[in-house]
Amino acid sequence: MKIRVKYRKGDSVRFLSHLDVARVIQMSLRRAGWPVAMTQGFSPKPKISFYAPLPVGTAGEEEYFDVVLDSEKIPGSAGKKGSGKGQGRIPTGAGAHGDVIDLKELKSLARALSDNMPPGFSVRGVSIVPDQEESLEEKISASEYEVDIKGVERDSLVSAVNAFLREHSVLFQIQRPKETKDVDLRPYVLDMDVKLGKPEPEERAFITMKIKHDAGRTVRPQWVLACLSRFGLQIDPREAVVDRKKVYLD
Amino acid sequence: MLGVRYNIIEWDDLRRELGKVQKPARYTGGEINARVKDHSSVDVHFALAFPDVYEVGMSHLGSQILYHVLNSRQDVACERVYAPWIDMEKLLREKGWPLFSIESRLPLYVFDIVGFSLQYELTYTNVLAMLDLGRIPLRSRDRTREHPLVIAGGPCAMAAEPLSDFIDAFALGDGEELVLEIVDVYRQWKRSGRPRKDLLIMLSLLEGVYVPSFYSVDYGTDGTIEAIRPKEIPVDPGMYAHIRDTLSKGPNPRKCASLNEDKPGIYLPPERVRKRVVRSLEDAPFPLDPVIPLMEPIHDRAMVEIFRGCTQGCRFCQAGVLYRPVREREPETVERLAREILARSGYDEVSLVSLSSADYSRIKEVVSSLVKDNPCAARVSLPSLRVDSFSVGLAEALGTSTHTGLTLAPEAGSQRMRDVINKKVTEGDILEASLHAFRAGFSHIKFYFMIGLPGETDEDVAAIADLAVRVRQAGRDLGIRPTVVVSVSGFVPKPHTPFQWEACMVPEEIARRQAILARALRGPGLEFRYHDAEMTRLEAIFSRGDRRLGASLELAFKRGRRFDAWPDRFDPVAWEEIFRETGVDAAFYAHRERGKDEVLPWDHLDSGVRKSYLWKERERALERMLTRDCRAGLCTGCGICPDFGVRVRLAGER
């Protein structure tokens, strides 16, 4: 039985890498006593799938992973297979393994997981994934980011964002250790908007960006920020605080 | 209560900068089981400082134990601090930020006590960098009442004379009891309002505390040490009374600190400082809730210490001397700890830790019980296996992944050299262990060897390659295509070992011997790995160095030397220059054989193993005589049990 968990990677844990997050979640699942199914073979691994990984430095309000439970070990439903008739028990969908899980049980697993996550992480929802459903990766169509920047001039920020949006193509060079690659950011940026904060001692502003995912491919808000310099905004993208607010599912 | 004024770096400021450094999670904490206390409700703030990067420090069991011990006390807040990587140091300096603790981002200088863990000599430059970044005066003599007490423990503390200008007091031996006594003395001193010097005097009355500034070192014309003597310390009447009181109550009657009756007002620290020994591990505290790092540590697993000490008696091994005597945990305790830590932590592996885990008298029963039944279906692993079929059998029983391969440490290639180092392993044992491993499905075996051991010839070096080839052949005869990895490091003579008098081989010679192996270990199924011979030399200099190396360390720090144990950071040319400018002859420290009666820079620090025993072991080494393990009950006369009033404790004989 496959469970989809919506979780939060909060501000305080934003500097964890995707691999760190995966490790933390696996350990949290074990602490919480989730009966996670394991892969067969030499070195069994828990059956967990993560999607649309966040880079180091980026927090996420609505992140997802899917986890397959070992139906033999589900508390309260051990051995009960194929009925789906018990009150409050939910069939996991036609064509499923015929497993059921008690709704209350699922909620308590969710609570246990949330309680056993390190500070900064929390569970925001769980749901049962019908077996025939396509991979989540395919379903993610866009991410909405909020980019928090400090010490910028309002006028140049607004005009840079507008200038970016007027372009049909904005090329960015991705520097990787062994290669550099050009990518056109513009088609990925579905929307971008500036929200100005209160004029605090240091001027603070928020840019919201809606960025497309295309069969698993996407771009980073920091790359977009780097390109805004071409339109007159001087900013070090590494100093921006980036949060993914929402992941759009089809 | 924190007495010093300070600012905490705002999180919003920090998070806007951390994107500029590698692995920023090294600096953000927030781990499960990390303890963040209310600073207004505790008396003593203790910074547990590890002079290497976070992921190395978080893998160190000793630090986890001390963190647990200190934070179990309501009146103590213990926080961790690690050496910032080069990029982070640069950022801290650019921003004008002090080095801060992981838990509360407290600047290092506001802590009452900063305690360093000294695990290897090549971290010494990081100790200085951390003090400087933490805005604590580098030299002990420049610190006032307003500065933290800077202490250091760990194996290197037993011979850390090169650090003696920078560390106020060293904590020798087992730390779990001593660290709390240090905290208590600190509290008492803090309330008394006495000068800083009195704190050091009070600490020196504790068994296991060595205050280097209380000792004077005289050098002979040939540069060797003539004597290390305690200084006569003038004390005021109040302090005099305190010392007399403490000495007469004598919780540590074997200490020989004294008051000079002929000279009133003079305190004489002990001539030799004894390491501390925890009598029974069974009663020693152990963390059920270790801090679980959010980023992957080097050793990503739960750890249970099954025993402390090792009496195999390998003559090159410092840990084998420093952690004597052997003290085992009861098997029920080991299993209970392992199960509980697994359930609470969520680790999928537990390691049964010791210096030689196959020696644990109840190893088979513990392993089979844990493999059968543990809460997370976790793997069980044993570090430091012996080279014999029994150990390989254990690895097999553990279901150790045959993918990851097996690591064995025969240490020397020829029987002659193995006899010299007292590694009681025959070629038959090695081949049998290898065959056992191949039959069990391991196709990848890694062997650790040393070169440059005392009296080693080219034939002994060649024997390493011969052995590897024979092991490969044994595998081929079984119809598999094994990979035999030969990993070779240069021998560094260590203080408190039978080889402490030996010369370390010069790098050119180590390199020539490496080349012999590189030529002989060509071919399919053979891999050869080795360490930088220059780094071996640097380790040899500092491991047996004296106080005169303090100036070199300070210059090295100023020249930006950091993380010298990291191959990509190590710079032998820079070090050569540093030694030249500070007038240090590297060969004097690294490549000189010491005389039998020479005063060694650590002679006044008592490991419990007598110098005469070490010398006898050295003589036996030259005659290729083996010395048995005292674990079985036959004493070999090292001296620690009668001298310290301790004994070997095996499971079941409480």
Overall description:
Chain A has 5 helices and 12 strands. Chain A has helices spanning 18-31, 103-116, 136-139, 154-166, 221-228; strands at 2-9, 48-50, 59-68, 89-91, 100-102, 121-129, 140-150, 171-175, 180-184, 189-196, 204-212, 241-249. Chain A is elongated. With 250 residues, chain A is an alpha+beta fold. Chain A has 2 domains: 2-133, Alpha-Beta Plaits, CATH 3.30.70; 138-249, Replication Protein E1, Chain: A (3-Layer(aba) Sandwich). With 654 residues, chain B is α/β, with parallel strands linked by helices. Among the domains of chain B are: 11-231, 3-Layer(aba) Sandwich (Rossmann fold), CATH 3.40.50; 301-382 and 624-654, Transcription Regulator spoIIAA (2-Layer Sandwich), CATH 3.30.750. Chain B contains 22 helices and 22 strands. In chain B, helix 6 (178-192) runs antiparallel to helix 7, helix 15 runs parallel beside helix 16 (507-520) and helix 16 (507-520) packs across helix 17 (533-543). Chain A binds chain B through residues 11-17, 19-20, 23-24, 26-31, 42-43, 56-57, 116, 118-120, 150, 238-241, and chain B through 11-12, 15-20, 23-25, 28, 30-32, 292, 294-296, 300, 343-348, 376, 401-403. Chain A: It comes from Candidatus Fermentithermobacillus carboniphilus. Chain A: InterPro entries: DUF2344 (IPR018768). Chain A: This is DUF2344 domain-containing protein.
Low-confidence region ranges of chain B: none
Strand elements of chain B, count: 22
Which fold name is given in CATH as the topology of the domain at 11-231 in chain B? Rossmann fold
User: For the record, what CATH class of the domain at 11-231 in chain B applies?
Assistant: Alpha Beta
Share of β-strand residues of chain B: 5-15%
- The shape of chain A is elongated
- The helicity of chain A comes to 10-25%
Shape of chain B from CA axes?
globular
- Class derived from helix and strand content of chain A: alpha+beta
Q: What about the largest sheet of chain A? A: 8 strands, mixed
Protein name (chain A): DUF2344 domain-containing protein
Pfam families (chain A): DUF2344 (PF10105)
Domain DUF2344 (chain A): 2-72, 92-221
InterPro entries (chain A): DUF2344
